[in-house]
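Translate structure to sequence.
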């Protein structure tokens, strides 16, 4: 009878039980947070590479129609942005948080070309493309 009376007075958890739960949640957080952070960075880089491919196509299409490359700068801000390339119906695209800069240039062999750079507020990495050199999309890290 006494045991039943004592058991009915007990409410809540013991300190040991609470400490065990806090430690368990800490371990779960230590495992999950780096995975979430890595996913965010890779998604940002994928968005930047997609903007690069889209804008390379736009710039090359503009060249086919006009025999020249066009400078452009678009800031995606919080919602993304689309801007015309020159006075054409070809668009330069910047996804949310990305900024796109295209600069027309003359290549070393006298032909026309352009550079493209994409930055994002979500990472310190940049995407670079130079049509005069190796014409490949490169991810660059800032200098330390």
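Result:
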């Amino acid at each position: 009878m006494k045991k039943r009376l004592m058991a009915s007075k007990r409410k809540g958890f013991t300190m040991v039980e609470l400490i065990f739960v806090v430690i368990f949640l800490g371990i779960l957080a230590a495992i999950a947070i780096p995975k979430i952070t890595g996913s965010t960075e890779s998604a940002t880089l994928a968005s930047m590479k997609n903007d690069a491919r889209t804008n390379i196509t736009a710039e090359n299409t503009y060249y086919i129609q006009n025999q020249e490359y066009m400078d452009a700068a678009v800031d995606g801000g919080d919602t993304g942005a689309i801007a015309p390339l020159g006075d054409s119906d070809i668009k330069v695209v910047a996804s949310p948080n990305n900024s796109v800069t295209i600069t027309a240039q003359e290549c070393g062999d006298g032909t026309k070309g352009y550079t493209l750079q994409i930055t994002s507020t979500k990472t310190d990495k940049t995407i670079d493309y130079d049509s005069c050199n190796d014409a490949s999309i490169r991810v660059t890290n800032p200098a330390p």
